[in-house]
Structures are given as C-alpha cells and as structure tokens.
Design a protein that fits this description.
Number of helices: 14
Number of strands: 7
Strand content: 5-15%
Structural class: alpha/beta
Order of helices and strands: HHHEHEHHEHHEEHEHEHHHH
Helix content: 40-55%
Oligomer: single chain
Strand order of the largest sheet: 2-1-3-7
Radius of gyration: 23 Å
Largest sheet: 4 strands, parallel
C-alpha cells in the first residue's frame, strides 16, 4: 500500500513539474515568422508591434485566366496577393500563379497561355532576388510547359496587429526550452559593447543596426534577423542576356520584371547595380531604390523583423511602384 502511495506521489510530482515547466516554456514554441521559427527566438522579443494597413477582402480576389488583364507568376512574395491589391484597386484584373504551379516559362509558353484563353496585356514575372536566377535558368532550359493545377484557398486579409494576448500552448516543450536557451545566449552576447553580429543558426544571423529602432518596432529593435540564403553578390552581365532571351518567348505581351530585393540587400548591402541597369534595358522597376527611399524616410517595418518577407506596408509600397510602372 505504501509503495502504491509513493508511486502515486511520484507520478503526481512529475505531472505537476511538467505542467509548471510547460506553462513557462510552451508559449515560447509558437512562431509567426520564418526567421524566428528557424532561429528559435521568441516572437515576444522579435515580432513586429506597429499596426499595419488593413486590406479589403475584395482586393485579394483572384480573376480567372480569361478575364485577367495581368498575369502574375511569382513566389511567396506574390502568394498573399498583397502587392497585387494595389493593381486591383486601380481597376486591373489580376490572375496570380505560383512558380511551383507554372514551374517555368518554357519554349511553348505563348501557345500554352493562348490555350487558357488569356487575353491580357501584361505578364509580371516576380521573384525574390535570391531565387530569380534559378527560375530564369530553369525556364531557358525548358521546352514544354508542365503546369500543376493546384488551386489555393481564398485568401483572407492579414492581421493589422499580431494577436499575442492569447497564450498558445500547442508547441513542443523541447522547442520552447531551446528558444529560451537561445534567448539567454543572445542576452549574454548582445550585452557586450563590441557586439555586432551573431550566427543564430545555419540559416539565420542577427545583425545590430545603428538605427534599428528607427526602422523596426519589435522590442529588441537594435538587433534584426536576416536569412543566410540572401544573395550577397550582385548579378553579372549574363543575367541581362538571359532576361532578353526569355522575353523573346513572349511576343505581343508586355513583360515586367519584378525582382524583390532580399532583406539583407535592402538594409545591409544596398549598393548593387542590378536594379538600376535592369531598368535601363527592360521594363523592370527599380524596387531597390524604392525600398531604400522608404528606409531613408525611416519607414518602420518595411520588412518584417521576424521574417524574410515584406510587411503589409512594404507590399503596398511595392504594388504602388508596379502600378505606376504600368500606368506609364
């Protein structure tokens, strides 16, 4: 009887300890941004806090192939349809396809597009800087279109503020513990006067910006997360030859190149010449200059501090530039 009582007390103690531990660590295991998730750092310290613009649901709606004025082929920067909402607000009908579906702009792209009854005038090829060359090379090597007809669900407008008031206990305890340990390491390293950068993980690094708190709203705003896969070097001249070759596959269409600067480029390495030179040779808005102007004007959270992507405001700035480009 005594052994059974001791066993019960032991199990009860373990459950109480796990519950107490879980209440402390589990909320740390919930992430909103890619960089906080990969780097295992808490959203409460690195998540944005300034309200973002509200987007009307009607502006996110997808037009059919046959009724669209504009075809967008893009990556995760186009998937939320946020920058496209500016085009829609100006009366354009937009159909967006993910590069995952289209796969490449192959040699028979023009005839394939005609078979889908597309009668629009504009094709916008959107890519993040770090991915544009890969999609371009794949397209130039591709002979026949192999479209994946995957329908994405109807998109809801993004939150204007993150809901961090509700505690989330759905994460893994081990992840929460690792996040707390990373935070302790950050606090130790970041307290040193000479601190400049920290390699958080293989994929994520943290950089201390002199004016970080003028540009970001997260509590630890002096320090900003960046993705190690961001492109460090500028493009060489072969890039323009490839772009020109691809455009020959789209006669009769207005091709617009929307290359989105990587977050590291916008904040840390803004002297690249690609956007300026591409604008001289192609219909390619200089998004780097547009974003640099916003940064110099101290636009807060142009990119999300906890992510590689633009904020809602950043996407709207991108959409306004593309809309002006089309209007011209």
């Amino acid at each position: 009887m005594r052994q059974a009582k001791l066993f019960f007390l032991l199990v009860l103690s373990i459950l109480i300890l796990y519950t107490i531990t879980g209440f402390y660590f589990l909320p740390l295991a919930s992430y909103e941004g890619d960089l906080t998730r990969i780097g295992k750092l808490p959203e409460i310290q690195f998540g944005w806090t300034k309200p973002q613009p509200a987007i009307a649901p009607a502006l996110l709606q997808q037009s059919s192939w046959s009724e669209a004025d504009v075809l967008v082929i893009g990556d995760s920067y186009s998937k939320p349809h946020l920058w496209q909402s500016v085009l829609v607000s100006h009366g354009l009908k937009v159909h967006t396809e993910d590069w995952i579906n289209v796969q490449a702009v192959c040699a028979d792209f023009q005839s394939w597009l005609s078979s889908l009854k597309f009668k629009g005038k504009y094709v916008i090829l959107e890519n993040a800087e770090r991915g544009v060359e890969g999609n371009l090379n794949k397209s130039l090597e591709c002979k026949n279109m192999r479209y994946r007809n995957y329908a994405y669900p109807q998109l809801a407008p993004p939150d204007t503020l993150p809901d961090r008031a509700r505690t989330d206990y759905s994460g893994q305890l081990s992840v929460g513990i690792m996040t707390r340990l990373h935070m302790l390491e950050y606090e130790y390293l970041g307290s040193k006067p000479a601190f400049k950068t920290w390699q958080v993980s293989k994929e994520v690094r943290l950089e201390r910006l002199a004016n970080g708190c003028e540009l970001f709203s997260h509590p630890r705003c002096r320090d900003v997360l960046f993705f190690n896969e961001d492109r460090m070097n500028d493009f060489d001249d072969s890039m323009y030859k490839k772009m020109s070759t691809l455009e020959t596959r789209l006669p009769g269409l207005v091709v617009i190149w929307a290359v989105v600067p990587d977050k590291s480029t916008a904040y840390l390495n803004p002297n690249k010449l690609f956007w300026q030179q591409a604008k001289e040779h192609f219909l390619a808005p200089d998004l780097l200059s547009t974003f640099r102007e916003a940064i110099q004007d101290k636009t807060v959270d142009l990119y999300r501090a906890n992510d590689t992507h633009l904020s809602t405001l950043g996407f709207l700035i991108m959409g306004q530039e593309l809309s002006r480009f089309i209007d011209k």
